[in-house]
Amino acid sequence: MPPRVPTEEDFSSLTPILPHTVQFPSPPESTTAFLIVFHGLGDHDEPFSNFAKGLNLPGVLAITVRGTDVLPAALLGGMELERPACHYGDDVIIDPETGDLAEDPGFEKARKLVMEKLIGEVLIEKCGWEMRDIMFFGFGQGGSLALGLASSLRQTARVTDISQGQEESSTAANTSFKGVACIGGPLPQSMVPTASSRAKSRTNVLVCQLEEDAVEAVKSEFEHVKVVQWKRRGVSMPSDRDEVLPLMQFFGERLGDGF
Predict the structure, then answer these.
(1) d(CA 83, CA 42)
(2) Residue 258 domain flag
(3) Which range has the worst mean pLDDT, 78-92, 114-128, 132-146, 177-191?
(4) How far apart are CA 112 and CA 43, in angstroms?
C-alpha cells in the first residue's frame, strides 16, 4: 500500500508525551519526505520550527521535537526565560573535569519516544512511510541525538531482521535514514552498538563545527560523512548565506534535487 500524507490528527496522540510542532509543505499533498528537527541544550522547539520553516525544503514535512525534560532551575542562574529550557538527556550530569554538563547523559528516553512513537507508530505504521524517507537536523545536544538515532538504527534493524525474518527489500528500506545534518553535536558513545563486528551506518551525514576527534568518531561509525567548518569559531546556528549553503546543498542532494 502506498504511503499517505499524515494529518494533524495522526500526531495528536504524541502531544502529551512528545510535544512538537508540525509544518506541512504547500500543498500538503506534495509531501515526499520528512525532516525531524532537534534543538540545542536548554532551548525550545519554537525557534527551531521557525528555522525549519525558513529552509522551505520542497515536499518536506518538518517536525520539530521539544526536549523530553526541562533543565533544573538551579542550572539557569536565576534567569527568567520566555519558554522552558529543555533537553533530551536521560539525566543532567555534570562533568567533574570541566564543570560543564556532560555531552552524553544517555538518550534512551528520547530515542524510544522518537523511534517507537513518532517514527514507528505514526510515520511507519499509521501512514506507511519508511526510515529512508526521514531526515534529521540537530543543533548541539539535538545534533548528538540525531547522530545517535542513525547510529543505533543498526542495532534496531539487526534485531528486527533476526526476530521477524523480514523480507530483504523491507529490511533494506529501514536500515538507514535519508540523512542527518548536525551542527556542533558529537556522536554519543551510549548510542553506538557494542557489537565488535558492527558495520558502519549507511545514513549520509553532514557535520558542522565539530572538533577533529569528534569528526573522527563520526567517520568511524558512518560510511558517508561530509565535514564543514565555518570561517568563524564556536558553535551556533548559521548566520549567513555561506553557512546555510552547505546545509541546503546536503538536503538537496538527499532529496535528489540540487540547490
Answers:
(1) 10
(2) no
(3) 78-92
(4) 21
Distance CA 181, CA 193 (A): 21
pLDDT digits (tens, 9 = 90+) for 20-36: 999 999 999 999 999 99
For residues 93 and 188, the model is more confident at 188
210 assigned to some structural domain: yes
Angle between helices 241-255 and 45-55 (to 10 degrees): 70
Strand order of the sheet with strand 33-38? Answer: 20-23, 60-65, 33-38, 134-139, 179-183, 205-208, 225-228
Instruction: Give me the CATH number covering residue 79.
Output: 3.40.50.1820
Q: Kindly state whether residue 1 falls inside one of the protein's structural domains.
A: no
DSSP code per residue over 213-258: HHHHHHHTTBSSEEEE--SS-S-----SHHHHHHHHHHHHHHHT--
Structural domain including 118 reads: 8-253
Q: How far is CA 192 from CA 177, 178, 210, 211, in A?
A: 16, 19, 18, 19
Chain Cα centroid distance, residue 235: 17
Check if the beta carbon of residue 207 is closer than 8 Å to that of residue 217: no
Could you tell me the three cell numbers for 224? 558517508
pLDDT value for 157: 53
Q: Which residues contact 35 (CB under 8 A, 6 or more apart)?
A: 52, 55, 57, 60, 61, 62, 63, 134, 135, 136, 137, 251
**Does residue 224 belong to any structural domain of this protein?**
yes
Domain count, the chain: 1
Pick the more confident residue, 168 or 10. 10
Residue that is written with C-alpha cell 534493524 in the block: 157
